[in-house]
Amino acid sequence: MSLLDSHVPPSTDLAPLAAGKLPAPLLAELLAGLPTHDPQLILGPGVGEDAAVIDFAPGSAHLLVAKSDPITFATDAIGYYAVNVCANDLAVTGATPRFYLPTLLLPAGAAGVGQARAIFDQIGAACLRLGIVVAGGHSEVTHTVTQPVVAGTMLGQVRRGQEISSHRAGARRQLPARPRHQRAGSGAAGRGPGRHGHA
Predict the structure, then answer these.
(1) Which domain holds residue 56?
(2) What is the pLDDT of residue 145?
């Protein structure tokens, strides 16, 4: 076998992936190749884990909890779901959500000012309801997407010693009911919550 041949990927690497989360065995393999070890990282990435727990200030009474998640399904309440999905995952670890940094991608040639305003309003209302502050983020109009996508990172805190691994948390907490004025549209926009997360 030549040196060139040794760099040819296995045939399985060329197979298309199905929509949804990465298969658990593949995700575990990929995560194993990342730098994930640090004495201050109490709970790092893993299959089925919802959030990271970080001892950001050793000696403090609280630990930092961080979560990133995208909303990629079609919905007219994407801002609402973007906030609440992350807040739910932080709650699973026992943490109180504090800060949110959303990234909004809008499809070029299809999105208007009204749609951008509506998504920002949804994010703001959801954060106000949960006592969360928007601390930053990013927004852009791009040809890469064909429908709005919101991917956000949420930061929270939990008292030291009270953090919970997702494997020990059992059932997730349910999302709060959607405000009445946020009604799902017809077709794809009326689908229930769904996401394509990493872990």
Answers:
(1) 41-163
(2) 96
Q: Given its phi and psi angles, is residue 187 left (phi above 0), alpha (psi -120 to 50 degrees) or beta?
A: left
Q: Which residues of the chain have pLDDT under 70?
A: 1-11, 166-199
**3-state SS track over the chain:** CCCCHHHCCCHHHHCCCCCCCCCHHHHHHHHHCCCCCCCCEEECCCCCCCCEEECCCCCCCEEEEEEEEEECCCCCCHHHHHHHHHHHHHHHCCCEEEEEEEEEEEECCCCCHHHHHHHHHHHHHHHHHHCCEECCCEEEEECCCCCCEEEEEEEEEEECCCCCCHHHHCCCCCCCCCCCCCCCCCHHHHCCCCCCCCC
Q: Is residue 113 part of a domain?
A: yes
Q: Tens of pLDDT along 134-171?
A: 999 999 999 999 999 999 999 999 999 888 876 555 44
* Any domain includes 172: no
CATH label of the domain that carries residue 90 = 3.30.1330.10
Q: How would you label 138-162 residue by residue, b for 16+ Cβ within 10 Å and e otherwise?
A: eeeeeeebebbbbbbbbbbbbeeee
Residue with tokens 């995560």: 31
The structural domain count of the chain equals 1
Residue 169 lies inside a defined structural domain of this protein: no
Considering the domain boundaries, does residue 124 fall inside one?
yes
